[in-house]
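INSTRUCTION: Work out how this chain folds

Token vocabulary: learned, describes local backbone geometry

RECORD BEGINS BELOW THIS LINE
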Amino acid sequence: MMNYPTFATIGLLSLSLTLASCSGRKGQNAVSATDSVATNTITTDQVLSIDTTLSYISWRGFKPGGEHFGKLPISSGVVNLKERTLYAGAVIIRMNGISVEDLKADEGGDKLKAHLESEDFFDVEKYPEARFELTGIPAEGLKLSDAQVLHGNLTLKGVTKNIAIPIASCVLDINEGTYTFTSSVFTINRADWGVKYGSKSFFTGLGDKFINDDIELSFVLVTRSVQQEDILPRS
């Protein structure tokens, strides 16, 4: 179980960080990476845990004439969420749990997974976790009905950048007492986090052996259930 003294010490959501083969195509909803900013502080007022069995990040990468895709697991996470209003949140992503879904394990999937986990890409032995921490939420919180974009610091391979993630939906299931956050597909540039292998941003003369810098990501985050009286506005 993680300790969450402040939002800045943990990490939320995405995430689907990728990786590997990326094609020459441009991804959807490209997001710019800027300098990190102050994060929102997680308080003890209605802290909801992320259900790691139902939450995940999807990734898709491209290279000339091909693509690969898979998922990344969420190892832990929390959000400050009360009466359908978001105040803070963070998730930790287990980088050594990356899966490849377009190839069978014995037909190249295990080899690709090992390459993505190596120093060429995410160096998971040195950086076993990535994290996303929410930023820019006003003191009065962000109503889920208004949550079209979530800003946050993404830390990957020891590099922290601020990005804006487009949100497709934020849904409260009254019967189950759970919230589900779903992002739209968005694209980050891996070069911003120093993921150099096969990148034209760092190397010349690659010919058609390059791997696109753009990584398409999307995520589904589901909270654990809370009591109905805690998630409905009080009269």
Notes: The mean pLDDT is 82. The CA atoms of residues 23 and 65 lie 7 Å apart. The chain has two helices and 13 strands. Residues 7-230 form a domain with the Lipocalin fold (CATH 2.40.128.110).
